[in-house]
Amino acid sequence: MTGRRPPSGDCPLKKTPLITEISKEFTFEAAHRLPNVPEGHKCSRVHGHSYRIEITLRGPVHPQFGWIVDFAELNAAWQPLHAQLDHRLLNDVPGLENPTSELLAAWLFERVNVPGTTVARIRVAETCTSSCTVYAAEG
Ligand SMILES: Nc1nc2c(c(=O)[nH]1)N=C([C@H](O)[C@H](O)COP(=O)(O)OP(=O)(O)OP(=O)(O)O)CN2
Ligand SMILES: [Zn+2]
User: Fold this and answer.
1) What does pTM read for this prediction?
2) ∠128-107-23 over CA atoms, to 5°?
3) 34-61 pLDDT, tens per residue?
């Protein structure tokens, strides 16, 4: 420690460019079966999960409101997706014929739309111990 302090009024933190994200967790109940698993795999049978979905958005922090967007906007964007998934057999949902966590996360990634933000990542948890996270690839 040199004990050197920045000059008064020169807060180094204020000069650090920040990346800010907000996240919200959602749930739905659904059944599925995995049609492409090896014969005899337990997931070839229809079974159900209490899915937990975490959606993370990235964007600029509004200078007046101090937020990226109101969490309520993310909640509103989720509602039509919830309507398509909740209490469904996911295999019947167009685009989810093989409803693995990976493909469900990608399906959601293509559909979440909150103006003024980009989707940073989506996490799909089928069980307490199993989850998948997708991110936008760089470039
Ligand atoms: N990479 C993936 N592997 C599996 C998926 C998947 O989507 N991606 N899905 C399943 C099944 O849907 C299964 O219901 C969930 O998997 P699993 O963690 O094996 O579930 P269990 O509760 O039975 O786990 P245990 O820890 O063994 O009790 C399978 N694999
Ligand atoms: Zn399953």
Assistant:
1) 0.90
2) 55
3) 999 999 999 999 999 999 999 999 999 9
